[in-house]
Specification:
This protein is mainly α and 125 residues long. The chain is built from four helices and no strands.
Length: 125
């Protein structure tokens, strides 16, 4: 069995969104070690899709618990983030028949400038 060793390098302005996240993760005051924080978020968001892509014939009964655990983690994070908001958030809805709406919802802003300006969904709008 081989192992993956990935070096992930990001150059970001300290005042950019990426810089803020990196500063938070590298400060060492997070609930989990840096590696765990990154892998937990990546797995919660992308693991079911990786399984679906890698194991195209994975039976639904085997995939369902994986999807449920990822959804649960994301829902817990959503509830936590909503508790930080000074007022109720508008939760967007997406049509299952429109996969493009899902892609737009998770897309980063088009601009790659240091301050990451671009059109971003505003939950307070």
């Amino acid at each position: 069995m081989s192992k993956y060793r990935i070096r992930f390098q990001v150059t970001a302005s300290p005042s950019s969104r990426e810089g803020m996240v990196l500063d938070y993760l590298l400060a060492g005051e997070t609930p989990y070690p840096l590696r765990d924080m990154v892998m937990l978020s990546v797995q919660s968001f992308w693991l079911p899709l990786a399984y679906r892509e890698r194991l195209k014939a994975l039976p639904a009964p085997e995939l369902e618990p994986l999807i449920r655990s990822c959804v649960l983690r994301l829902q817990m994070q959503q509830q936590y983030l909503q508790s930080l908001s000074p007022r109720p958030l508008q939760t967007p809805t997406f049509s299952d028949s429109d996969p493009e709406s899902h892609r737009r919802a998770i897309a980063l802003p088009e601009s790659r400038s240091a301050d990451r300006t671009g059109e971003v969904w505003d939950p307070f709008a």
